[in-house]
């Protein structure tokens, strides 16, 4: 039986993150968007919340409290503040969590303590490829074994590329099977070209070109045993679904509040049937998408295969985020198209969910 009532500890976490999003993220969102820059002090303050460190094993300095449901709750609140900043704050998980789940003993020992340390350390995951046929389970990027090394060739896009990152986790086709490789960002043959996106402009992303990039055999995530890329993708889809719900909720709340204040013919527009029905539909869709994300997260926590649930949650949440953000622009009328107001930012960010894949993990 699934119980969606947050535990006392989860509710405390949600309240803490929500306050942080309201007081630290939301006030800086527009400035960061316009400047296309991340404030280091915000990332440092977010690191103190321990959103990634708390999920890491205690033996490496983490909190040992791994929970996909908790991760989804946190992701929604952060994205409610701002999607780009939320993705940046959660970027350490892109490398740390796969290493924690599948890393060989030496990989875990080498990498995990840094993510649980006193400073913010970003992570990167290169999964999406610049092709209409991109498939995370059958990557076009190849990994060829040559003696004691693997040679990687291919291209990736939408790769979070924050300053200070040391390594990127690259998925590649290894003998017909999708695997992941830990690649130094300074590796010879690896070129990163900054991307200019319509939304999430505060989050630096890059297109990677891997041309005969050589990594030692020990760089293969999980060593000889390898890793389950599908499990990584599932956790990414649940995380994105939760963030899409956060964006939709933010768009709904700002349009609801505006509708209560904006008056025409002596009454708030929220009393007009067309607006009231639109707001009601927005709220219904958001709640439905949230439940799908929670169900998928719950299955992950139960150790069950959540491939179907994660895919459904991501698909539904990305649709809801876009439709709700567009509806918010309509509620604002002409003001919704102006950059001084949030709806246009929410709409541009929501548009990207159809393209994103594993930009965050739970």
Describe it.
By secondary structure, this protein is α+β, with helices and mostly antiparallel strands. The protein is built from 10 helices and 9 strands. The protein folds into 3 domains: 8-115, Acyl-CoA dehydrogenase/oxidase, N-terminal domain (Butyryl-Coa Dehydrogenase, subunit A, domain 1, Orthogonal Bundle), CATH 1.10.540.10; 125-225, Butyryl-CoA Dehydrogenase, subunit A, domain 2 (Beta Barrel), CATH 2.40.110.10; 229-354, Butyryl-CoA Dehydrogenase, subunit A, domain 3. The chain has helices spanning 8-35, 40-47, 68-81, 83-89, 93-102, 105-115, 229-261, 273-301, 307-332, 343-351; strands at residues 125-126, 142-146, 149-160, 167-174, 177-184, 190-194, 205-216, 263-264, 267-268. A 4-stranded antiparallel sheet has the order 2-3-7-6, with no helix packed on it. The chain has a 3-stranded mixed sheet with strand order 1-4-5, with no helix packed on it. The protein has a two-stranded antiparallel sheet with strand order 8-9. A hairpin with a 2-residue loop joins strand 8 and strand 9 (267-268). The relative contact order is 0.14. The mean pLDDT is 95.
Give the overall average pLDDT: 95
Whole-angstrom Rg:
20 Å
Q: Per DSSP, what share of the residues sits in E-state strands of 2 or more residues?
A: 15-25%
The number of helical runs is: 10
Number of strands: 9
The backbone outline, from C-alpha atoms, is globular
**Main sheet properties:** 4 strands, antiparallel
Q: How does the helix and strand content classify structurally?
A: alpha+beta
CATH topology value of the largest domain: Butyryl-CoA Dehydrogenase, subunit A, domain 3
Ends distance: 22 Å
Q: Uncertain segments of ≥5 residues (pLDDT<50)?
A: none
Main sheet strand line-up = 2-3-7-6
Q: What string gives the helices and strands in order? A: HHHHHHEEEEEEEHEEHHH
CATH arch. level architecture of the largest domain: Up-down Bundle
How many domains, in number, for the residues?
A: 3
What is the name of the CATH superfamily of the largest domain? Answer: Butyryl-CoA Dehydrogenase, subunit A, domain 3
Reading off the top of the CATH hierarchy, the class of the largest domain is best stated as Mainly Alpha
